[in-house]
């Protein structure tokens, strides 16, 4: 292994360590290339190679003339999947937590996303990744189908994670939209009002009976929906 390769690996590992540890937060600018060249005593090409690898890994964003910045957590999810946000974020190596904002119980009302009548648990919260707001969640859970949800406080475990572990689903439907962040959502997610966001609504059923509805809203630069297809036979 050459000296350049050794230095490239060392630079990459040092920067990644600062990001993973939280010493450098999302949005923080990392040292300019010429600063890293001076610090490590190497060629600029070596620094550029390390930064390119970090950018491809989604850990930094390189902005022309502005420098490189720690990227906000950015995850991918299959369009037809029901992902566990906490597990996806943890798989990136980032710390995850769910902040419970509101929790209540009420009867079904006209216009509710869940059509079945009966008592419903209402939940609102914010998903956090690497210490930063990642996504907002509003959820309804049918207590006729999931009465045990009454006894879960959802501060230690996000409702979506808990449901995936306790209530198997047999059918799901997604609705995806692009929406601007209103003032309250912008405040909760730490973004500017009007920022483009991806909004995902999901309904799940168990053997034809409704289990939950959720609306999750993410800043548009932090979440990808991905699908893989094969040609249909004719």
From TrEMBL:
> Which keywords does UniProt give here?
DNA-binding, Transcription, Transcription regulation
The record's listing under NCBIfam families reads: his_ut_repres
Query: Which Pfam family is one of this chain's hits?
Result: UTRA
According to its UniProt entry, one GO biological process term is: negative regulation of DNA-templated transcription
Show the GO MF annotations. DNA binding; DNA-binding transcription factor activity
Q: Which gene encodes it?
A: hutC
Q: What is this protein called?
A: Histidine utilization repressor
Does the entry feature the keyword Ribonucleoprotein, yes or no?
Answer: no
